[in-house]
Amino acid sequence: MAGPELYFEKFLGKGSFGSVSLFKYKGKRDGKTLYAAVKTSDDESLHREFQILSEFKGCSRIVQCYGTKVQRFNNDQGNVEYEIKMEYAPGGSLRSFINRYRDRKLPDPMIRAFTRMLLEGLAVIHGRGYVHCDLKPENILVFPSCVYEDGAWRSSLELKISDFGLSRREGDSEWWQPGRRFAGTPIYMSPESVSHGETEKGLDLWSLGCVVLEMYTGKRPWWHKNYDLEDLENCYEPLIPSDLPSDAKLFIMTCFALETEDRKDASTLLRSSFLRGQVSKITKPQVNVKTDDRRNFALELENIRERLSEIRSICV
Which residues bind ATP (predicted)? Predict the structure, then answer.
């Protein structure tokens, strides 16, 4: 993607290691307006993230990066900064997506489909020997799109995992020390990662359980108490409400298993009863849901239809 001149559009957000802004540019072939998310940081760790993302070129469940190297430049203050260009997610993060729903609770069929997508992404990440280490709604991006089904175009939603700034090779615990007892966001971390600095795929599966729980409840994990890292050290887990579907509770309990091997792996969890019969793309609710959920789902699809022209222009 080297070459096109980028024009700043708007600021998208700021994270632990840098900020992300939206830029637009003209396509080389047809001159259409295209978009890219540009991540900027003064930390050289951006090179490492770019290298990891480059290993996932073509993976549909992982955000894609553009170009062949990290760009280095001097900012307005004369300080060195680095930037990488990535595909832009018009639907924003899963966090902002959840916040648009009433009570911040997603419809059950959508949660199941989203969970499948995340597991597909984790299966690829773990298959390449990496652990994401910071899976949470803020680091999951929503991509509206369109699929042709039964002779008609239907709106669809796709999830991709982003922000690999804290990712580690599986088994790498060199980062851990008594003063820095977790790699990612505390409330999404697993007991063994906090207590012993273990960086295994079970950490991501614990975090996934937290995300699934949050999609159902509309509340962040540990909402029921004042969270403390001692809760994890004492082998406690976030509260699972009793009114969740039984197969959903079983799935989340598997993610929260104290023995990491009991959490299975992403490929095995994809075959769980919780996801049986689900498909990767959301085209319509697959079970009966409450009226409010149907209305929320319909409104979301209508918003997606309005953005379809933009979506087609940014497909690469």
Answer: 39
Compute how many other C-beta atoms are within 10 angstroms of the C-beta atom of residue 98.
19
* Tokens at 193, concatenated: 């990662």
The token duo for 266 is 């992403």
The SS3 of residue 229 is helix
First to last CA, the chain: 11
User: Model's pTM, two decimal places?
Assistant: 0.83
* Token digits of residue 121: 């992404």
Q: Buried (b) or exposed (e) across 255-275, using 16+ Cβ within 10 A? A: bbbeebeebbbbeebbebebb
Please answer whether residues 207 and 136 qualify as being in contact, where contact means their C-beta atoms are separated by less than 8 angstroms.
yes
pLDDT digits (tens, 9 = 90+) for 228-276: 777 777 778 899 999 999 999 999 999 999 999 999 999 999 999 999 8
Asked which of 6-15, 112-121, 278-287 is least confident by mean pLDDT, the reply is 278-287
Report the alpha-carbon angle 192-194-196, nearest 5: 60
Q: By the 8 A CB rule, do 161 and 61 touch?
A: yes
Length of the chain: 316
CATH class of 7-88: alpha beta
Structural domain boundaries in the chain:
7-88, 94-269
Cβ contacts of 36 within 8 Å, gap of 6 or more: 1, 6, 22, 23, 24, 25, 66, 85, 86, 87, 88
Contact by Cβ (8 Å): 204, 122: yes
Q: How far is CA 216 from the centre of its chain?
A: 16
Six-digit token string for 98: 């959840």
Integer Cα distance of 141 and 221 in angstroms:
20
**Backbone region of residue 163 per phi and psi (left: phi > 0; alpha: psi in -120 to 50; beta: other values):** left
Query: What CATH code is assigned to 94-269?
Result: 1.10.510.10
The answer to whether 160 and 141 are in contact (CB under 8 A) is yes
